[in-house]
């Protein structure tokens, strides 16, 4: 079967890989020149300041979880070993200013999550017990919530104290759903909790990429396909006996681009009614600030939480020590414990050439229209202030910065949002993307699942 995929993101390449493995002749169209979509390498990132970055950046910081079984299985099928490509750590959510810390011990489920909540620093005993009651109630309900409920409504219905919401549930909601708690779908959030804190112990592990996002597996997948880079598809048109892409006939096609782009591809043909629904999907931005520091600077953990204060322009929610993740710092865990297996983790050693850190802002509506220099300065001030509060060494001067804002990073995960499935009225045309109805929010595992499901739809069709 001669098939095509439009879009070389994680969903598109997952679909292409599945169809290639089934014996299809696959061509992948990609308007850019780097595979990975919204989770890809940026070879020559724009930067402000005298110093460029040592290597490519990603167009956004992503983490994965041990629960992402489909992603990890796909990587292994492509010969990409997750043990080599990720720094795998037990769940630890620690704030840079020292006000909060939740760490999951290596105990069997569900005790790992229960002990983590009971020992959480920064939460009162009433906060901790309320958090446990919420998890127990969700599990008892089969992880189902009333239709149309928001995360804010879920918190209120289960009597979650302000401290638990502010320090735990709200940051997790923003990170996973990219949607404020007052607007976020509680059912999607329950799915996230089910597969993380409510799942097996290993499911809560943090998987922090050691390499750029394209190198994780998209490069390997693209190497196995016929790629048409730099080709911006103008139209995808269902036709008798197949699907036309800019006039070229294929037996079947998977469209795996963002919904607004898919709407444009369908607008002029028989699929124009489908285009109207796709163009109506709401979206939310994510901002990523990469900083190159003049001198070495270590964080206590490779990923830490930031306390936001929007009124002061302090919108940062997470900070990453990319020097440690890249393997340029080898040493000991804080507290003098040896690194297990020689893992590259932050310690009491200094990496040459300064330090690279990344600050992430989810649901970054406030930054999307703000002056970039002012936004950068406010985020830097936020980190300096919170590091000082924790008693860390002063943050060195900034040598260079790159603020990347993806204005359509994910769909806005509102309750009742109608997301399309993989099937369309045309059996040989399927949709893929984290924005389709995967049961997950707009995360990488959802993209992989959608691509594999779209490939399954195509492979149902008679071979030619």
TrEMBL record:
Residues 11-459 form the Amine oxidase domain. InterPro entries: Amino_oxidase (IPR002937), FAD/NAD-bd_sf (IPR036188), SQase_HpnE (IPR017830), Zeta_carotene_desat/Oxidored (IPR050464). Transmembrane segments: none annotated. GO terms for molecular function: oxidoreductase activity. Pfam families: Amino_oxidase. This is Amine oxidoreductase. The lineage of its organism: Bacteria, Pseudomonadati, Pseudomonadota, Betaproteobacteria, Burkholderiales.
């Amino acid at each position: 079967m001669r098939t095509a995929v439009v879009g070389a993101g994680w969903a598109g390449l997952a679909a292409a890989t599945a169809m290639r493995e089934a014996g299809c002749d696959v061509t992948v169209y990609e308007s850019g020149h780097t595979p990975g979509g919204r989770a890809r390498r940026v070879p020559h990132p724009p930067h402000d300041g005298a110093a460029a970055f040592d290597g490519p950046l990603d167009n956004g910081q992503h983490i994965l979880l041990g629960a992402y079984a489909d992603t990890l299985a796909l990587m292994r099928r492509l010969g990409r070993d997750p043990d080599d490509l990720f720094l795998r750590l037990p769940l630890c959510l620690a704030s840079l200013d020292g006000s909060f810390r939740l760490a999951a011990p290596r105990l069997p489920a569900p005790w790992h999550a229960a002990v983590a909540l009971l020992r959480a620093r920064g939460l009162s005993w009433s906060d901790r017990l309320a958090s446990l009651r919420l998890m127990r109630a969700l599990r008892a309900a089969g992880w189902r919530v009333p239709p149309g409920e928001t995360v804010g409504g879920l918190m209120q219905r289960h009597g979650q104290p302000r401290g638990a919401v502010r320090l735990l549930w709200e940051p997790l909601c923003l990170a996973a759903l990219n949607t404020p708690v007052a607007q976020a779908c509680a059912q999607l959030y329950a799915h996230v909790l089910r597969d993380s804190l409510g799942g097996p112990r290993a499911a809560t592990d943090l998987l922090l990429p050691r390499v750029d996002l394209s190198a994780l597996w998209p490069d390997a997948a693209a190497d196995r396909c016929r790629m048409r880079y730099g080709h911006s598809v103008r139209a995808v048109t269902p036709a008798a006996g197949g699907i036309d892409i800019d006039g070229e006939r294929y037996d079947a096609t998977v469209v795996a681009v963002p919904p607004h782009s898919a709407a444009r591809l369908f607008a002029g043909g028989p699929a124009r009614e489908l285009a109207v629904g796709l163009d109506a999907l709401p979206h939310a931005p994510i901002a990523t600030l990469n900083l190159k520091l003049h001198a070495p600077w270590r964080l206590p953990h490779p990923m830490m939480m930031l306390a936001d204060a929007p009124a002061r322009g302090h919108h940062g929610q997470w900070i990453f020590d990319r020097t440690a993740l890249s393997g340029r710092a080898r040493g000991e865990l804080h507290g003098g414990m040896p690194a297990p297996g020689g893992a590259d983790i932050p310690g009491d050693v200094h990496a040459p050439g300064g330090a690279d850190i990344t600050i992430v802002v989810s649901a970054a509506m406030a930054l999307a229209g703000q002056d970039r220099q002012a936004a950068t300065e406010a985020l830097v001030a936020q980190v300096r202030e919170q590091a000082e509060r924790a008693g860390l060494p002063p943050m060195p001067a900034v040598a260079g910065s790159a603020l990347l804002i993806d204005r359509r990073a994910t769909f806005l995960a509102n309750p009742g949002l109608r997301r399309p499935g993989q099937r369309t009225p045309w059996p040989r045309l399927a949709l893929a993307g984290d924005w389709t109805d995967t049961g997950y929010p707009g995360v990488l595992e959802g993209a992989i699942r959608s691509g594999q499901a779209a490939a399954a739809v195509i492979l149902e069709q008679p071979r030619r």
